């Protein structure tokens, strides 16, 4: 039996289809037996590595399930065929099971990762076409785009960005907070840098966990010719150092605070005027018999007592909310420079604008005659409700975004990362 297994091994190395058929005729279970007894060099893996297409197809025809059998490093035949760039073999293996595209080896790599690392562009296209989602798999918190930059594969990087890279995926960060532009600057890959700056929506001023932008990383290297070329490209794209980016962020916050101050002041003025001069005005002459009709009292209290209460509550909430915004903005407290505070002001402004919208709605309701203006009032109600709905969506969206940012901040606080090395060592993901 050992002699036949040795012959099978030699046949898989040579791709000898005649010997394979002869052995299978003599012992139809020899492939199953070798798979069970030998966890290392299995015939299908050997033939896939060496590119013996006919040999592989013969095995797949008789035992298609062997395409999903892992070796000692948890690699499938598709892993080895992809790493070696055997396109026909890859097609044959995919025809049996495209699920193999998603299989991970002991390093966490799927066949697409290995093909991208080795620069097998034709294989990458086949694998992406078979299972596009395989490109989304992470390897040690790195995307396949990070792997392409780490292994200097700009052609494959361009293809993956064009076919699978949306904005979020393109700007994904690794465990050290680096996006692919950070890495391209680290390695001084001018071709990749120009590709990212000219043809993608890469974030040129994104900061890693050490607070460094791509421009900061560039400044740490030698001032040679490549430095000048990359500096020119980054400058044209609007890249700046982290300190300047932080200053720009502060300027943006200052503009937002100034805008909020102006809006709050206007709304507070409107609320004060509406409170002192409500819809329908006030009684000019007093009544000796009715205490609600004294001079200076609101007419609305007499004609629409319930609506007046709603009007007064909404108007007061809007007035107090905007006064709170003004008070906070002029207080000069140190926490006012944080984005969280801006979100709090936005929520207060939402309360104020919603209250004033309801105040307007009640005013139109009591001032419009019935039933002649019923259709008009319904239109007004609909418009106001749509406005309130849009404002609510805005607040909810920014709340979700704030929660995500806060969660990432806590994660970095609890699990701090080491400072990224300027020239990281390229890992051998394929082990070949």
TrEMBL record:
One of its GO terms (cellular component) is plasma membrane. ANK repeats lie at residues 73-105, 107-129, 176-209. It is found in: Membrane. The keyword Membrane applies. The chain crosses the membrane at residues 307-330, 342-367, 379-404. It holds the Pfam family Ank_2. The keyword Glycoprotein does not apply. Residues 251-366 form the PGG domain. It comes from the Eukaryota. It is a multi-pass membrane protein. Keywords: ANK repeat, Membrane, Repeat, Transmembrane, Transmembrane helix. This is PGG domain-containing protein. It comes from Lactuca virosa.
């Amino acid at each position: 039996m050992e002699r036949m297994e040795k012959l099978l091994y030699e046949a898989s190395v040579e791709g000898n289809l005649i010997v394979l058929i002869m052995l299978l005729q003599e012992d139809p279970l020899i492939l199953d037996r070798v798979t069970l007894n030998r966890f290392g060099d299995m015939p299908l893996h050997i033939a896939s590595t060496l590119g013996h297409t006919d040999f592989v197809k013969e095995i797949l025809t008789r035992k298609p399930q062997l395409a999903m059998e892992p070796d000692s490093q948890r690699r499938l035949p598709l892993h080895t065929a992809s790493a070696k760039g055997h396109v026909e073999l890859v097609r044959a293996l995919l025809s049996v099971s495209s699920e193999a595209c998603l299989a991970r080896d002991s390093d966490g790599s799927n066949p697409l990762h290995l093909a991208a690392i080795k620069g097998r562009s034709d294989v990458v296209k086949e694998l992406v076409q078979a299972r596009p989602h395989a490109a989304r798999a992470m390897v040690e918190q790195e995307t396949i785009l990070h792997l392409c930059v780490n292994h200097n594969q700009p052609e494959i990087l361009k293809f993956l960005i064009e076919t699978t890279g949306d904005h979020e995926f393109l700007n994904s960060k690794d465990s050290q907070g680096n996006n692919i532009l950070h890495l391209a600057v680290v390695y001084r890959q001018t071709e990749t840098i120009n590709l990212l700056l000219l043809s993608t929506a890469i974030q040129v001023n994104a900061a890693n966990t050490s607070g460094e932008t791509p421009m900061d990383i560039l400044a740490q290297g030698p001032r040679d010719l490549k430095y000048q070329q990359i500096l020119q490209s980054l400058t044209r794209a609007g890249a700046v150092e982290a300190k300047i980016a932080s200053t720009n962020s502060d300027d943006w916050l200052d503009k937002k605070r100034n805008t909020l101050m102006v809006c709050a002041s206007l709304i507070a003025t409107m609320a004060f005027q509406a409170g002192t001069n409500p819809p329908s005005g006030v009684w000019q002459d007093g009544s000796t018999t009715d205490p609600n009709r004294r001079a200076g009292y609101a007419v609305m209290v007499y004609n629409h007592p319930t609506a007046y209460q709603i009007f007064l509550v909404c108007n007061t909430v809007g007035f107090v909310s905007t006064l709170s915004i003004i008070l906070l903005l002029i207080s000069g407290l140190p926490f006012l420079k944080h984005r969280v505070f801006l979100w709090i002001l936005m929520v207060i402004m939402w309360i104020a604008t919603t209250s004033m919208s309801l105040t307007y709605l009640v005013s139109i309701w009591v001032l419009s005659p019935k039933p002649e203006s019923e259709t008009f009032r319904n239109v007004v109600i609909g418009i106001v409700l749509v406005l309130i709905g849009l404002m609510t969506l805005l607040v909810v969206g920014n709340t979700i975004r704030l929660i995500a940012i806060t969660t990432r901040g806590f994660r970095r606080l609890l699990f701090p990362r080491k400072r990224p090395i300027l020239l990281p060592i390229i890992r051998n993901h394929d082990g070949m």
